[in-house]
Amino acid sequence: MTLSLNYSSKINKIRTFALSLVFIGFGVMYLGLLLKNIEWLMLIFFLLGMLCIVFSTVVYFWIGLLSTRAVQIVCPSCEKPTKILGRVDACMHCKQPLTLDKNLEGKEFDEKYNEKKYRNEINEKK
Ligand SMILES: [Zn+2]
């Protein structure tokens, strides 16, 4: 079984994404402030920043919805209660990969997640 140790819970990932969006939003609005000499550009940056923040709120609501749909189990590794989203997910506490369907193990762990992309986006804005 070759599973990545860097795999983290889907809910945690989405939460990180939502939090990143808030920072990106504020970053974009700050850029707008720097460009206050060009009024229309400042307005565009402010609008973009607002959109990011509004979108992150939507994502937070979405996490709430997902959490209610997730299957709650007790992690066999750290014995804490955690939630599984979809067929395969990782423990929220110890990042132990968990699955509800052993036939699907491996395949979904190859799924490409965008976490690194989000991080790059934050770095670009700084
Ligand atoms: Zn665990």
TrEMBL record:
It is found in: Cell membrane. It is a multi-pass membrane protein. This is UPF0295 protein QQS35_15700. Pfam families: DUF2614 (PF11023). The chain crosses the membrane at residues 16-34, 40-63. The lineage of its organism: Bacteria, Bacillati, Bacillota, Bacilli, Bacillales. Belongs to the UPF0295 family. HAMAP family: UPF0295. Keywords: Cell membrane, Membrane, Transmembrane, Transmembrane helix. It comes from the Bacteria. The keyword Cell membrane applies. InterPro entries: UPF0295 (IPR020912).
